[in-house]
Fold this protein.
Amino acid sequence: MVQALAAGSYLFVSQLVGFYSVAAVFGLAYGGVMPLYAALAREYFGQRILGTVFGAAAMVSSLGMALGPVVGGWIFDTFNAYDWLYIGSFVVGIGAAAIALAFPPLPSAEPRRLQPA
């Protein structure tokens, strides 16, 4: 959600200090979420298919990162501004947050205890 709000905030930034401030918030939100992907994939889908789930997530995110500059360039060339790029990023981010909130809670809320070796 923070990433989506930061992406949408670029619409309202017109000076370099504001741009760097929004970029710092966006980067911190991205860096805080990325390490959780493997842990969440394991908790929700189990260890047996962790490689498949994590591989699919990495493939989809890599595809998005590969197409992002091309689509962003097309949007800029078509509309002569980055506004629609930021709006699109905001909408995709809100959609991702909605999908994350739609996941059911884990069956057991109790913390796991390590078994002695």
Remarks:
- The chain is about 75% helix and 0% strand.
- Residues 67 and 85 are 13 Å apart (CA to CA).
